[in-house]
């Protein structure tokens, strides 16, 4: 597909798209057995993006946990719209909403899965969510009985679904990502128009 922007816009879109793929593959192929910031392994054997990918994946998962992967769709949309030369005046707001959404989802996961180890640098939700969880847990434990259980369940659900809603909103999916060319359909004369044409062609006898 031909780039609609200028040279700088096309280069920027291509670079951003490649970085998004690099980031996504780095996070998806993360392994605690690879050498990274939070690992003492000797080398990299599992990450598809090599040593650089191991560091990127480790840093992203350490900060945001599993929700870190939700940054990938936003980066790809940025690259796509830049390639099509679509103005993106609200990109900072979109990025902020996405990050807040990832943090909310991370908190919900961290609060839901207390102390569970899944082989990630900072658990399910990342280090920021762990800090929020350490502050929220003592407060919710003060609420005893069924009401306390209800509050904890609602807190988890609100965090997860609220985070998902913010991430989806950050994508601005109401704006088109693809331009489908209009297909010109052949126009056939209607029955009335055909009859009128026949009458016009008819010559009365003299």
Chart the SSEs and their pairings.
Layout (H helix, E strand, L loop, with lengths): L6 H22 L21 H15 L6 H13 L7 H22 L13 H15 L4 H26 L20 H11 L5
Helix pairs in contact: 1-2, 1-3, 2-5, 4-5, 4-6
Quick description:
This protein has seven helices and no strands. With 206 residues, the chain is mostly helical.
Q: How is this structure best described in words?
A:
- With 206 residues, the chain is mainly α.
- It contains 7 helices and no strands.
- It is flat, with a radius of gyration of 27 Å.
- The chain starts with 6 loop residues before the first helix and ends in a 5-residue tail after the last helix.
**Sheet bearing the most strands, described?**
none
Average pLDDT over all residues: 86
Order of helices and strands: HHHHHHH
According to DSSP, the number of beta strands is 0
Q: Percent of residues in beta strands? A: under 5%
**Secondary structure tally, helices:** 7
Low-confidence spans? none
General shape: flat
Radius of gyration: 27 Å
* Helical percentage: 55-70%
SS content category: mainly alpha
Taking the alpha carbons of the first and last residues, their distance comes to: 65 Å
Characteristics:
mainly alpha; flat; 60% helix; 206 residues
């Amino acid at each position: 597909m031909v780039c609609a922007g200028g040279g700088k816009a096309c280069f920027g879109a291509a670079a951003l798209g490649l970085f998004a793929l690099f980031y996504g593959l780095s996070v998806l192929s993360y392994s605690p057995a690879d050498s990274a910031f939070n690992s003492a392994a000797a080398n990299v054997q599992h990450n598809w993006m090599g040593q650089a990918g191991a560091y990127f994946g480790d840093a992203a998962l350490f900060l945001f946990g599993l929700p870190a992967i939700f940054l990938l769709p936003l980066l790809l949309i940025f690259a796509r719209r830049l390639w099509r030369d679509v103005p993106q005046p609200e990109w900072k707001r979109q990025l902020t909403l996405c990050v807040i959404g990832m943090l909310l989802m991370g908190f919900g996961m961290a609060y839901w899965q207390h102390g569970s180890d899944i082989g990630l640098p900072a658990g399910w939700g990342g280090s920021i969510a762990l800090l929020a969880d350490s502050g929220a847990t003592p407060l919710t434990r003060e609420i005893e009985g069924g009401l306390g259980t209800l509050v904890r369940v609602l807190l988890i659900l609100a965090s997860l679904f609220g985070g998902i809603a913010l991430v989806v909103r950050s994508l601005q999916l109401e704006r088109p990502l693809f331009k489908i060319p209009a297909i010109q359909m052949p126009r056939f004369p209607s029955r009335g128009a055909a009859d009128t044409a026949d009458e016009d062609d008819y010559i009365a006898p003299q």
